[in-house]
Recover the amino acids of this structure.
């Protein structure tokens, strides 16, 4: 049997590790030619998500090709609206689009709390992936945070400002809370089904946290994130709230195990307010456009700032689609070699 790699799980629990574990947000798909080959044999992204054998195959690609310390199940945060009764389409080079949106109490009647059974294809992909991983790396399950999912369901797709979604928070807070609560209950059932199928840890992506003012983030995102953290006690939970600068202390107070940092979050400052939690992140994804020497220099600088405990190395957001996979590999290799070097030096010193 392959040697077991549980560095990420131990770091998430705050335990000491031989080196810093590393993975990359959006590591599956996007940058790998091997992914595009698999997708081209199907009708598109959504069929790939719903075909467990193929989803498992592309989940494993970054483990084999890039050497990351964790796999993240190949799926999308938008499977939750679909399971609630609001299907999406994925338009090539444009992104997700919802033919119908939710804009009133009346529309809520169209929706249901998603049942885990309707997302059985994800559970199946997780079970298959776990079998094929055979302990080589832990498997991360994930979901969008309720606010981010709310934003897509009311806006109907991506947006710079998410004005329709934000207008709701000002004009229809009662409706907003009802929809957010429905999303939250759907998400908890969904994450629990991922864990039952074999997910070793789960990450909640609040990708649009940063467009809310602090008071709205505290009122319309934090209560729901808290509910999710409290409901999931089987495995560690990572909260990645991009741009939630003013709510880092609130996130630290939840029962999550790991806080994700985007690349603008100051590492030392976040350490101070993190109440001893493990931190994840946060190299600027655009650093990977620089040459190899610069990627190495910036990665080492980041590792030194986080220190060599309670850290999971990652980018500060998903890898950009036009990044050379060799640069991603360089980032991963530098994390592994440099942290191992630093930690073995530490051990040598203490044994003197
Ligand atoms: O590598 C992985 O992490 C694979 C699994 C994954 C996907 N989406 C696959 C995907 C994950 C974790 C996500 C999360 C996701 N999806 C988020 C949160 C993370 C973030 O980046 O903030 C968000 C906001 C979405 C919604 C979404 N899905 C958008 C805006 C788009 C279009 C733009 C793009 O490429 O991200 C998607 C499509 C999508 N999801 C693709 C992949 C591989 C690209 C589709 C394709 O080219 O096949």
């Amino acid at each position: 049997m392959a040697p077991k790699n549980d560095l990420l799980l131990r770091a998430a629990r705050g335990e000491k590790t031989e080196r810093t574990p590393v993975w990359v947000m959006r590591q599956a798909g996007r940058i790998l030619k091997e992914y595009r080959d698999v997708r081209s044999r199907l009708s598109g992204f959504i069929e790939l998500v719903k075909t467990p054998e193929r989803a498992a195959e592309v989940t494993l690609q970054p483990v084999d090709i890039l050497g990351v310390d964790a796999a993240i199940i190949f799926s999308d945060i938008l499977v939750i609206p679909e399971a609630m009764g609001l299907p999406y389409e994925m338009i090539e080079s444009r992104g997700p689009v919802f033919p119908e949106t939710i804009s009133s109490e009346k529309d809520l009647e169209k929706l249901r709390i998603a049942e885990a059974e309707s997302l059985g294809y994800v559970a199946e992909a997780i079970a298959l992936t776990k079998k094929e991983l055979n302990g080589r790396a832990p498997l991360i399950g994930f979901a969008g945070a309720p606010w981010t999912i709310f934003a897509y369901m009311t806006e109907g797709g991506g947006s710079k400002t998410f004005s329709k979604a934000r207008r709701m928070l000002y004009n229809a807070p009662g409706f907003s809370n009802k929809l957010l609560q429905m999303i939250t209950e759907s998400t908890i059932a969904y994450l629990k089904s991922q864990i039952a199928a074999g997910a070793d840890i789960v990450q909640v992506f609040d990708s649009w946290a940063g467009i809310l003012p602090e008071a709205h983030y505290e009122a319309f995102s934090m209560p729901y994130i808290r509910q999710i953290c409290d409901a999931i006690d089987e495995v560690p939970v990572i909260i990645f709230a991009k741009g939630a600068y003013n709510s880092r202390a609130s996130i630290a107070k939840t029962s999550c195990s790991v806080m994700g940092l985007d690349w603008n979050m100051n590492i030392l400052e976040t350490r101070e307010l993190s109440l001893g939690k493990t931190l994840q992140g946060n190299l600027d994804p655009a650093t990977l456009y620089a040459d190899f020497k610069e990627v190495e220099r910036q990665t080492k600088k980041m590792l030194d700032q986080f220190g060599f405990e309670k850290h999971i190395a990652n980018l500060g957001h998903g890898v950009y689609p036009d990044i050379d996979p060799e640069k991603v590999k360089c980032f991963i290799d530098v994390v592994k070699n440099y942290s191992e070097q630093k930690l073995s030096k530490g051990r040598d010193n203490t044994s003197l």
